[in-house]
Amino acid sequence: MKTEALERYLNSFANQVVKEAKIKLASSKGDTALGNSIRAIVVKTAQGFDTKFYMEDYGEYLDKGVSGNKNEQSYINTAGEKVKSPHKYTTKGPPIDILSKWIKRKGITPKGLGRGRDKKTGQFLSGFAYLISRKIKREGIKSLSFFQKPLGIEYKKLKKGFLTELKLDIESYLTTYYRPK
């Protein structure tokens, strides 16, 4: 049986989730690299269809948040419920060398904090990057739910229109293969 209408409907669903996630991410974070990496494909399988979503690895951490040593972070899941983040800083915080690059890229010049060299890489590190890393490790990273919310909203819409599209495919199949005399 041909399922063109259903496949088109699932592609429309996936594209709408991606579009809304990119808009939500841009408005809350302004991260264009992560926004450009978000994509979806619909794959036909033996059991039906799979809708798969892809993004950079760190997108999940921004979407669901990361709990710190002192604070627990939570996010809004697809059902609209507040759920505890599955990610947590335990012994290590974010890498100081990456935070140093971020500080330099943003043009932040901290005063009164000396610069030293990393013993492993020999790269210059600021004390400010160390302080930021400690704070993130303690407090965590707040969830943006930029992907979970649009996915939940669009999934509710998907459930309502799914049967209509399936009906169209079945009617098309019946009229193609059963023509009364």
The sequence of SSEs as H and E is: HHEEHEEEHEEHEH
SS elements, strand count? 8
- Overall SS class: alpha+beta
Distance between the termini: 22 Å
Overall average residue pLDDT? 84
> Approximately how much beta-strand content do the residues carry?
15-25%
Per the principal axes of the C-alpha atoms, what is the gross shape? elongated
How much is the radius of gyration in Å? Answer: 23 Å
In the sheet with the most strands, the strands line up as 1-2
Low-pLDDT parts are none
If helices are DSSP runs of H or I spanning 4 or more residues, what is the number of helices? Answer: 6
Largest beta sheet, briefly? 2 strands, antiparallel
Helical percentage = 40-55%
Number of domains: 2
What does it look like?
- 23% of the residues are buried.
- The mean pLDDT is 84.
- The two termini are 22 Å apart.
- The protein is of the alpha+beta class and 181 residues long.
- The chain has six helices and eight strands, in the order ααββαβββαββαβα.
- β1 (39-44) and β2 (49-54) form a beta hairpin.
- The protein has two domains: 1-65 and 144-181, no CATH class; 70-142, no CATH class.
- Strands 1-2 form a two-stranded antiparallel ribbon. A two-stranded antiparallel sheet has the order 3-8.
- The protein is elongated.
- α1 packs antiparallel against α6 and α4 packs across α5.
- The protein has helices at residues 4-28, 32-37, 58-64, 96-106, 127-139, 148-177, and strands at 39-44, 49-54, 66-67, 74-76, 82-84, 115-117, 124-126, 140-141.
